[in-house]
Amino acid sequence: MDTEVNAITTLVAEDHETVRLGVRALLQSQPDIVVVDEVTDGHTAVERSCELQPRVVIMDVSMPHMNGLAATRAIKAATSGTGVIAFTRHDDSAFVSELLDAGASGYVLKQSPGGELLKAIRTVASGGSYLDPRVVEQRAQANVHIQPTGRRISERERMVLRRMAMGLSNKETAFELGISVKTVEAHKTNAMRKLGLGGRIDVVRYAVLQGWLDDR
After folding, report:
1. How many angstroms from the chain centroid is the CA of residue 176?
2. Max CA separation in the chain (angstroms)
3. CATH ID of 155-210, from 3.30.70.20, 2.60.120.20, 1.10.10.10, 3.40.50.720
4. For 3-23, how does the pLDDT look when each residue is reduced to its tens digit (9 = 90+)?
5. What is the C-alpha radius of gyration for the chain, rounded to an integer number of angstroms?
6. How far apart are CA 151 and CA 101, in angstroms?
7. Cβ atoms within 10 A of the Cβ of 65, count?
């Protein structure tokens, strides 16, 4: 494929065909953006990013084989000039923080107008960072920081949240881990506060993002 010297080379990683085709059509309508490849899973996204060295990768968060979080980490570790934009319908603060911590330079919601994705691509391609205005507004209203926090949950907190996501009760978790129910509740509260998770649904989403449920 011949590309203009100054064109923003972009790789689209999205497993849903309808969304992928829509993104491709949007990008191909822009004279300064060139789609160099489209992939449908995280492993392939990493492989093709290493081969093609695109300036920007549009990264779906939920994909088979390797999710967008793991793929983002791998791409940032293996390439030097490729920026990653997380492209997802999830506006959970935990998702935003984890993707930024993994090295993503942009975060755009699929439900936002296409113009937001174009702004993100051009901003990231020029070395900047971009957050969807809807994410910024929601986090501001909730008084949640949207920059990488560096706050990590402990291993015991991770074990408790994983079991919560799997559907275990506090009593069952306490029995498995050999701790009291009150300690389970304390670990759960602390971990959810650190990650900005509001309830069990958020915990399950976070567990899927982290791949905690893959080896059940």
Report:
1. 31
2. 64
3. 1.10.10.10
4. 456 899 999 999 999 999 999
5. 19
6. 10
7. 13
Residues forming beta bridges with residue 39, ordered by sequence position: 13
DSSP state of 76: H
Give me the residue label for tokens 């919560």. Answer: 164
At the topology level of CATH, where does 8-141 sit? Rossmann fold (3.40.50)
More confident residue, 189 or 37: 37
pTM, entire model: 0.74
Domain ranges of the chain: 8-141, 155-210
Q: Please, which residues have CB within 8 angstroms of residue 124's CB and are 6 or more apart in sequence?
A: 55, 56, 83, 84, 85, 105, 106, 130
Asked if residues 82 and 71 have their Cβ atoms less than 8 Å apart, the reply is: no
